[in-house]
Amino acid sequence: MSHSTDTDPDAATFPDDPAEFAEVADAEIGLDPGDIPEVGSRDLLPVPSAPSAASGGELVPFDPLRRYLAEVRQYSYLDREEEHALALAFFEHGDREAAQRLIMANLRLVVRLAYEYKKTPINLLDLIQEGNLGLMAAVRKFDPHRGTRLGTYAAWWIKAYMLRYIMANWKMVRIGTTQEQRKLFFNLLKEKERLESQGYEVGPRLLAEHLNVKESTVVQMEQTLSTWDRSLDEPVADGSDMTHGDQLADPRADPAEAAAQRQLRELIAGHLATFGTALEGRDREIFFERLMSAEPVTLQEIASRHGVTRERVRQNEKRMLERLRAYLSERVEGIEGLDFSISAE
């Protein structure tokens, strides 16, 4: 595994000082420093249960997680002196091989920390991969002169990257985009359980006071955590043709207004049909072939058919439209603004 010593654009959101970073992480995303192991113990890596052997000579299913764990166990831990020498080589001289050895030696720590979040709906291998990015960031920022073990310092970076990934992928709609949301995402349920254990009747207002956030933010986060996203194209039930999107109200028109418009169109259509049947000759042709047709003919076509000029047909059309407007005005209220113009010439 290799990495660049160039600045990581994502790392810009994290402080350089491990003490400052610990304070920010604890305050904003609810990390407990006591949960971070002091690296030095020899078996930080959990061992998942082995898949049962297949009977009858069948192949055992491939498990990518076990394969990855087998690979990272090949890299031994570094003692304090080895780690300090490698860290100095990278810190002072940019030795990439030294940085790579530091990263490889701490891959098991990433897996150990990822297992703390195995109950989240996030793929564990994805979480490990994100934690490895945090480990790389920690190696870039690590100052061996401070006297802190790399694992202790890197644990904060690893967890921060994992927690940020969890918030970004918890739902289709991204959450945790503000400091208040990040604090609530990790602390809301924990604080609610704590207050309930003390005998309080817990509501949004009490939670908001204890967590120092707005009450509306608490309500919104409770709704977010209690429900899962659904696709609007998902059927409302098995075998149903109706989707969740079909149940959404149309914001473009009021139902009463839509019904009134539909009745008006039906009324006008009836009067137009009655008016047209009373017409004769050229006026009837103009009415049905120009006004009522989806593809109106031109004035010239009607003029050629009757052996008259185009202007004569236009005058006939104008008089017929004036009669139609007067006819509808007597029978339909609010018809004055109706447009009777015909575009085709």
What does this 3D model show about the protein?
The protein is 56% helix and 0% strand. The protein is mostly helical. The chain folds into three domains: 137 residues, Up-down Bundle (Four Helix Bundle (Hemerythrin (Met), subunit A)), CATH 1.20.120.1810; 45 residues; 76 residues, Winged helix-like DNA-binding domain superfamily/Winged helix DNA-binding domain (Arc Repressor Mutant, subunit A), CATH 1.10.10.10. It contains 14 helices and no strands. The N and C termini lie far apart (74 Å).
Task: Show the helix and strand layout.
Elements: H1 18-29, H2 64-72, H3 80-93, H4 96-105, H5 107-114, H6 124-141, H7 150-169, H8 179-197, H9 204-211, H10 215-226, H11 255-277, H12 281-291, H13 299-306, H14 310-331
Fraction of residues in β-strands = under 5%
Average pLDDT over all residues:
76
Helical fraction equals 55-70%
Uncertain ranges: 1-44
Distance N to C terminus: 74 Å
Quantity of strands, as a count:
0
User: If you consult CATH, what is the topology of the largest domain?
Assistant: Four Helix Bundle (Hemerythrin (Met), subunit A)
Number of domains: 3
The H/E string reads HHHHHHHHHHHHHH
Largest sheet: none
**CATH top level label of the largest domain:** Mainly Alpha
**Shape verdict:** elongated
Content-based structural category = mainly alpha
What's the gyration radius in Å?
37 Å
Level-2 CATH architecture of the largest domain: Up-down Bundle
Count of alpha and pi helical runs: 14
